[in-house]
Design brief:
By secondary structure, the chain is of the alpha+beta class. It is 15% helix and 19% strand. The strands form two sheets. The chain has a four-stranded mixed beta sheet with strand order 4-3-6-5, with no helix packed on it.
Amino acid sequence: GILADEFNAYNTTHPVRLVMSGDAHKDQTYFLAHLSQTQLASLSFPIGGLPKSEIRTIAAAAMLPNADRKDSQGICFLGKVKFNEFVAEHLGERPGAIVELESGERLGTHKGFWFHTIGQRSGLRLSGGPWYVAAKDTDGNVVYVTKDYYSVDKERNTFRVG
């Protein structure tokens, strides 16, 4: 089917269908980790399981003006403002350590943990990669990285919200 991975979960009030993105290259479901239970309770993603190519086809059939718009790597509400510029202007910069998760070795310095998201690969400016952001210590302003983010031994079958 169109869903990459689907299973049912139940909470105390109603059934919930958890779906991974239908397009692994455009997946942005990591943002769900920052939502509260109240926010999640009324959340709906009607096209969340569809790959981007199918959404483009649907948009073209409906003659939507953005059907052929170039894909963006930015955040839609920022317009032409770059993400790092926006974050630096609103949160500032605070240098901290980039540390390899497995060895504890310091590999470099970042400008602030808030510039990085879990799973991120770009913008780390580290050699010998690819490196992925695996964890963040927000109190200590440390970004932990790994080369094995997607390895089988790190398979994830649960997640925690809140």
